[in-house]
Structures are given as C-alpha cells and as structure tokens.
Design goal:
This protein has five helices and no strands. By secondary structure, it is an all-alpha fold. The protein has one domain. Helix 1 crosses helix 2. The longest helix is centred in the C-terminal third of the chain and has 29 residues. It starts with a helix and ends with a helix.
Length: 108
C-alpha cells in the first residue's frame, strides 16, 4: 500500500473528483509531497500518456458525473481555486525544468 498522496495521485489517473484534487492540494501545502512527485506518480500510473494530458487531468478535465463535491471536506474554497493553486505550482515546476535545461545547454 502506498502513501496517501501516491494513492490520490494514482486516483487522478483514473478519475477526476474534487475530493482527490482537494486532498492532493492539501498534501502539497502541508509539505507531504510536491507537484513534481504527483506528476511523476501520474506518469507511472499512465506511462503512455503525454505530459500535457496529465496536466489536463489535474487542471481542466471536467469533474466526473458522480463527483460528490467538497461538502465533506469543509473546504471553504471552490475546485476552481484549488486548480488555480495547482496551476501555479505546475507553472513554477515548468520554469524550474526549463532553467535546468538551459543551464545544461550552456555547460555544453
């Protein structure tokens, strides 16, 4: 059995539920994981999916029809707010990756 954040990241590979997004976001904010680790776990769960497809699942894919909502979480924010925060994390990760690639290119 994996850690809770790994299980939630894997779940995002198969379904799009507000509770999964909320839990992943909360675990990132609490320092239990990073957006990089979540995406890497998603890539392992979906090895043939393009990076952009995985990001779409997190940021844009419509919630499943049977989504229960955030009522049980006592969250006082919307899924849109959560996704915007995750989007900022992903943008920062993309910048970090781009800087690393540029640094390597400059060394060559």
């Amino acid at each position: 059995m994996g850690t809770p954040w790994r299980m939630k990241a894997q779940a995002l590979g198969y379904r799009t539920k507000s509770r999964d997004l909320f839990d992943v976001d909360t675990m990132i904010r609490n320092g239990d994981t990073t957006i990089r680790a979540v995406i890497e776990e998603l890539q392992q769960t979906n090895p043939y999916a393009a990076y952009e497809t995985l990001i779409y699942r997190i940021l844009e894919k419509p919630l499943d029809a049977d989504d229960e909502g955030l009522g049980a979480t006592r969250a006082q924010e919307s899924v849109e707010t959560i996704r915007n925060r995750l989007k900022n994390d992903i943008l920062e990760l993309n910048l970090e990756i781009s800087r690393a690639v540029l640094d390597e290119a400059q060394k060559s």
